User: Fold this.
Amino acid sequence: MYDCSEDFHVDPTPRRADGEYIAHARISCSSTDGREYDVHLSGDLGGFDAREDAVRYAANWATEWLKTHCGSRQRLPGDHRQ
Assistant:
């Protein structure tokens, strides 16, 4: 199981392939020494014409994954709370 007392970081940056944006999510945490480590990698979640749609889909997917496995302590891009 996961240490759900930590804040999670979600990176929903899509990759570009065959003319579309492929949604996927990287969920990570930082260890006590500050090094980041992967908690879960989604794999490909689907293809989208618009980058924003792929990002939104991956972020929503990650939110649901975290709710299921740990609650909802994720940080999305641009969230700089300490």
